Structure formats: C-alpha cells, structure tokens
Amino acid sequence: MSKKRSLCFVDDDPAELARFKRAVGSQFVVGAGTTLTMALEDLKAQGRRRVDLYVLDMYFPNEGMNTPEELSKLGKAWDAFCTAEDALKSVLAELGQNFAGGRALATQITSRSLFTRKPFVFFTRKGNLLDAIEAYERTGAL
Predict the structure, then answer these.
(1) Torsion angles phi and psi, residue 21, rounded to 5
(2) Which of 39, 69, 103, 139 has the fewest CB atoms nearer than 10 Å to its CB?
(3) pTM above 0.85, yes or no
(4) DSSP state letter for 67
(5) Cβ contacts of residue 12 below 8 Å, gap of 6+?
(6) Which helix (H) or strand (E) covers residue 48, if one does?
(7) How many CA atoms lie within 13 A of 27 on its CB side?
(8) Residue 55 phi/psi, 5° resolution?
(9) Is residue 1 over pLDDT 60?
(10) How far apart, in whole angstroms, are the C-alpha atoms of residue 131 and residue 140?
(11) Of the candidates 71, 17, 65, 69, which has an alpha carbon nearest to the alpha carbon of residue 39?
C-alpha cells in the first residue's frame, strides 16, 4: 500500500475538486466530493478508509447546491471584490506601503543574531490571506 497520506476534500464546486486533485494528487491520496459522504466514498474506492486530513470548503452552502443564477451572482460579487482589492493595493503601493517593507523589517530582525532565530509576527489591517501565507511560508513569521 502507498505511504501517501490521505486527504478528504469537500467542496461544492466540481471544478474545484478536480483542480485540487490535480494539484496534490501526486503527493496524497485524495478523496473528493461535493458532500462528505461522496468524498469518503471516493477515498474508500481508492482503498483508503482512514483520513489523515480533512480539507473543507469554508463557504460551503448550508442547504443543497447553488443554482447557476446564484453562482453567477457570486461570480459578479467576487469580481467586484477583486476590483476593490486591486484598487486598495494600488493606493497602498502609491503611498509606498506594501509587503516589501514588512519583509525588510523581518530581514532586519532575523539578521541581528547569528545563532538564534528571533520569533516575530506581523500585524496589519490591510493584509489578506495570501499575505498571511507569504508571511508564514516565506519570511518565517509565527
């Protein structure tokens, strides 16, 4: 049997399920479905009963699946959000406020000691999830 760990991924978007499987399927055994039962059945079909990690859609619909009209409305709202976020990032860049400044501070902190790593975190009202991921993965923030 494969030494790969098993993931159980639940999302309401079949396209997202397929993207996820393509992205991590070489590293994990992935059971995916639009319901928990479907995802577990998919994992079982691959010879796995034990789940090492559940990956869940944070904004999963409470009741059933969304209609094409609802998904269209969501798509338009998402586009408007991205446009607004881009406008905010443009203003921040115009004012010289971007993550490069925070990374420079982090470099100063980490270069102060040759032997021990100094723990640090970032604080901001302007950041987003991608900034948080970058802070954790690329700069070593806690």
Answers:
(1) -60, -40
(2) 69
(3) no
(4) P
(5) 34, 57, 60, 61, 65, 66
(6) none
(7) 4
(8) -115, 115
(9) no
(10) 12
(11) 17
DSSP code of 115? S
Order across the sheet with 6-10: list the strands. 29-33, 6-10, 53-56
In angstroms and rounded to an integer, the radius of gyration of the C-alpha atoms of the chain is 20
Which of 91, 83, 99 is closest to 139 using CA atoms? Answer: 99
Contact call for residues 7 and 48 (beta carbons, < 8 A): no
* C-alpha span between 125 and 72 (Å, rounded): 30
| Nearest residue to 53 (alpha-carbon basis) of 1, 2, 10 | 10
Summarised one tens digit per residue, pLDDT across range 15-37 is 999 999 999 999 999 999 999 99
Q: How far apart are CA 30 and CA 11, in angstroms?
A: 13
Give me 126's structure tokens.
Answer: 């302007």
d(CA 127, CA 132): 7
* pLDDT tens digit sequence for 47-99: 999 999 999 998 888 877 888 899 899 999 999 999 999 999 899 989 998 88
How many other β-carbons are positioned within 10 Å of the β-carbon of residue 102? 20
Q: Outline where the chain has alpha helix (H).
A: 14-24, 36-45, 68-94, 99-111, 129-138
Q: Residue 130: what residue type?
A: L
